[in-house]
Amino acid sequence: MLRDQTLDLLQRFGLRVEAAHDEQQLIDPKVIRLLIEASGTSETDKVLEIGPGAGNITVELAARASKVYAVEKNPKFIPLLRERLHKLNVEILIGDALAVHLPDFDVLVSNLPYSIAEATLQRLKRLRFRSASIIIPSSLASTLLARIGGADYTKLTCEACLFFDFSLVSTVKPESYYPEPKTTTSIITLKPRESLKPTEVAVRQLLLQGDKKVGNALREALIAASAHGYPATKKAAKKVVEKLGLGEETLEKRVARLSLGDLDAILDSLEHHTV
User: Fold this and answer.
1) Which of 142, 184, 206, 257 has the most CB atoms around its CB within 10 Å?
2) Percent helix, percent strand, percent coil in the chain, to nearest 5
3) 247: β partners
4) Structural domains in the chain (count)
């Protein structure tokens, strides 16, 4: 059984794992297969895995893909992973998945460390890939899958859905892990969104400039979306921003500080503006 194999490995390397530190290991072969199959991984794909831990998902991925990049931050798992994976088509990348250079990949398959699940989504907005299948806390899954106006609909929902299409695959029982987590988890898939309205293209470009003030960032966003009918010069784009009537308070905010109401107002203003 995979559970017994995992416990033997951890014991042999003198490793203690704690759910409180995001170290729970997936030990249910059926869940691992479901996670990988939901991603659509093929034998020609390069696959990225974040947080392999003891490598249970990694071994199965290696049998299905042409190459696996496994990013592990926790140094205590590295000796185990090196021994277990050294004969497989796996490259271990040591470091923080939010900061380390990531090679080109086609598919992401991960039981994501829960503490970086939302931040990982933010990084994925800037990367090119075909699809992803991830395990995240069910509360976060509910937010990402929420409908406009629903109780779980937040700024994160609005923002994430401008970049990705999400689908729920399954919930995961606590006994599928060792040790069992206190957080309920779900498998979801996401794919980069391809069909967008011009207003959504512009706001997506705006959101990629989180450290800038809204006024300047929106001007640059309109220029970046000029193929969709927006002005291609700074002067013309500035005039459009002025005509949107968003107010000085909104325009002086940093993009990362925008609220859900702010985003709705920007989308609505762009929607009613004639390019």
Assistant:
1) 206
2) 45, 20, 35
3) none
4) 2
